[in-house]
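assembly run, all chains below
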Amino acid sequence: MKHIVILGNGIGGITTARHVRKLSQHRITVVSGETEHFFSRTALMYLYMGHMKYEHIKPYEDFFWAKNRIELRQAWVKSIDFEKKELHFAQSTSEPLGYDILVLATGSTPSYFEWPGQELPGVQGLYSYQDLERMETAAPRGTSRGVVVGGGLIGVEMAEMLLSRDIPVTLLVREKSYWGNVLPREESELVSRHIREHGVDLRFGAELAEIKPDASGQRVGSIKTTSGEEIAGPFVGLATGVRPNVDFLRGTSLEVDRGILVNKYLETNLPDVYALGDCAQHREPPAGRKPVEQIWYTGRIMGETLARTLCGTRTPYTPGVFYNSAKFFDIEYQTYGQVPARLDADTGTFYWEHPEGRIALRINFEKETGAVTGFNACGLRLRHEVCARWIEQQSTLSHVMQHLREAHFDPEFFRRHEPAIAAAFRAAHPAQASSLQGKRSWRERWFSF
Amino acid sequence: MRSLKKIGLGIFLLGFVAWVGTLTMGQFTLTDAILKQELKPEHYELLRPALEPMIGRTYASPFGFGRDFNTAFGRINDDFKANQQWDSVIYDNYAFPVARAASAGVLTESTLLWFWLTFGLAILGALLYILPNLRQLPGIKNDHIYHRSMTSRGWLGISLGVFLIVFYVGLYFYPEYLVNWTLLVDPLSRALSGNPASQWFLYGFIYTLAIVVMGVRMLIKYRHSPYQMLRTGSVMFFQTSFAFIIPEVLVALNRPYYDFKNIWPLDYDFFFDWHLNTLLSNGTLGVFMLVWGIALAFIAVPILSYFYGKRWYCSWVCGCGGLAETLGDPYRQLSDKSLKAWKIERYLVHSVLVFAVVMTALVLYTYFTGQAKIGPVDSYSVRSVYGFWIGALFSGVVGTGFYPYMGNRVWCRFGCPLAAYIGLVQRFKSRFRITTNGGQCISCGNCSTYCEMGIDVRWYAQRGQDVVRASCVGCGICSSVCPRGVLNLENADPDSRVTVAPEVLFGNDMPKIK
Ligand SMILES: Cc1cc2nc3c(=O)[nH]c(=O)nc-3n(C[C@H](O)[C@H](O)[C@H](O)COP(=O)(O)OP(=O)(O)OC[C@H]3O[C@@H](n4cnc5c(N)ncnc54)[C@H](O)[C@@H]3O)c2cc1C
Ligand code: SF4
Ligand code: SF4
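ok done. output:
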């Protein structure tokens, strides 16, 4: 029996702990500074908006940990002595904690760009539970305006949060369109329209230059963009991305680049030290993957994989077909496979959008073989297994079009869009025309839509 | 939009306060003629002397009247009991009909005016409060549910719970104090059935009103979801027609009062002797009603639940479910999701089912053999124990009164014997399940939080296992609130339900060990 110490109780660390427990009798200690228990970071926004309370975003009841003999320790680690195999805590009175195996799952931290004034009260990012608590006090109802900087997922979440308290929002996006480095133009426009529909003052090509204090000098009062425009707002949300939370590990024998460097077994350069989740940087990422992938799902998949290795079966990290999802106000978004913002020459694309402009489906394919390579769905739920299988088996676009109903995952009685999508496909690709197969829903049969 | 809502709320409160205020209005004068008319002759003889001091006296509210009447009435019965004259003890409830007959004043004179000043204003206000929500974009809008006192067990919520509990206690045990409210709906009752309004008619009216008005709120809140709209429309329809209007019209036609969608054992007195006798003395229609009721319970329930799961009844048709899904919607998040609550639920709800079955068996035994005693137990006392503890206290007082404390399905989850019965079908032999979409769950907890049945839906979703639970009423809210489109209510081959979690979630290609 070994003592496995896991630093970080996010999805990466906790998945590792749970699976190690399933597979072995090792002693497990999870150390984390942020909160005593694992919570769902992705749900932080719902606390501010009053959809849930903290207890609801904890995926396991508190008795779970003792029952599964997973020891929890809430403390900040200041440094790690890899020679002696010890963690040293920020609180000097705490004894160092020894380990046989160390798993680093320290997650991310918001990244700022050294803007003047970024340390002023009322300026913050949103990553940790403490950030959320700060936002509660910094942006109460009645705040005259919130300026959110950053056209990514967290930016739009912050905008939605502020609006829920009737705080007007200006959202500054440096690119020419919303999340333009990830979303193709049509989806980006669709989402932008929706964000504006909610009353957000959405500005493209607007870059933050400086954050200025208010008259008291005690907190933020306004921001200035690179074009010289000043926007007043007593709250500034910085959602300009995250970077691996590894600063306290720099300058040690552990090899760190942007994140902690790991091989495909999630092993670091040091024996008995592993890293996973947001803080890990893959030396040789799987095909089509980025070295650092800061998303919930990959953290979980790495945890499942690493637990195998820790319990004696050395297992490489093999995530399946890429997938991700998000929600922009009321529009759900799912993606499977590769749907880059800009197509390369070998890839074709088929895009359908509902006339009302809130629902869309994109399918990318290899021009030469017709094999589908990726799906984007907005306002439409697709079945994960089916999309992944089509991509994995390199099904052709016309096959997918014929069998589109299999991917349907919207609730019962929802309007079925397959006929319209298939018709659009026939119009765009007459040569590949083939009819839609599968059972029609009762709604289509009775009301023909 | 906001100011319209505020005006609406103000008007609603005005109507509500006026409504509560009407309880204290009117004059109540007991006369000999009333006693003669309302009491059985033998009881008239017994009660008249004790009630003598009340006769001719005018009370300014039903409370003084009711108190005096009950005191006199209780004294007589106490004497009988003290003298062991058990046969003379009066069990009839006379306080309510006598109070109604004795009432006079503005409510009886200008009933319609007061109807509009109370119910009318409340409805108008509620609609003005609800309709502006149409201006929000469609989508899940659960903002501030945990910030509001009303929906997060704050003082407003607690007060509402107290009000509901007091209301139910009054309704079941002290209807004489609510007599003014029945006066308000008297014209409607007379129009429908030809009879004066009883406290049960009042209850049915308020119940239906709550489902319809709060149903409109549901229709607006979930207008992005055809599933929710259809389901809500369905409970509104079944409540208004099957539960409220049709039974009254049957009475007007001199037919037995009958709710065609109420099913034994929720309808626990279906097999009571008086009910069977009523049906059997009503010719073909009565026999049809009897056969219909039995077929619903023993044929329709298993078959429909096999095909569609519990939802075909619990969240599409049932009256208790209808109230829970409309009036109770703002409280669904308050159900306890802990493992402990699940354990208690299983013991409790199945015990009630056993109780209902045993009670019915005893009642039928008595019906067919004419013998009340089976060993030491008396089937009459068993049924009255059931009626009091389960029928009145559990399903009524706790079932609805506890909405603001324990969520909108307290009765359905912990007490309803029909739910327990359908649940067994759903759990063990049904095509229904809630599927989870590959590996898309982000463990956010919206589904669990908003599951009114206290099911920890996330526990299933995050391990890729279908939700196959006896208690799930198929309301579909978990699927609606999921921000990642993970959950879907589906019907397919029962054996295709994923009841054992995969070793690792979909999306990880590493080889399986097993
Ligand atoms: C607001 C928000 C919304 C998001 N939404 C989505 C989404 O919808 N979909 C998606 O795929 N991803 C989403 N993400 C990203 C996702 O949450 C992260 O990728 C994921 O949580 C990372 O998990 P992790 O286990 O690697 O690290 P973390 O969850 O960050 O956990 C690391 C833990 O380690 C602790 N720790 C770090 N250093 C120390 C130390 N020195 N001493 C003690 N403790 C330490 C930290 O306090 C933290 O608790 C979102 C992120 C945020 C902030
Ligand atoms: S599991 Fe979902 S469908 Fe079932 S009762 Fe709960 S919220 Fe409703
Ligand atoms: S609401 Fe959806 S994403 Fe959130 S925990 Fe439930 S299934 Fe998972």
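Residues 150-431 of chain B form one domain.

Strands of chain B lie at 27-29, 58-59, 103-104, 373-374, 377-378, 432-436, 487-491.

not gonna interpret more than that til we talk
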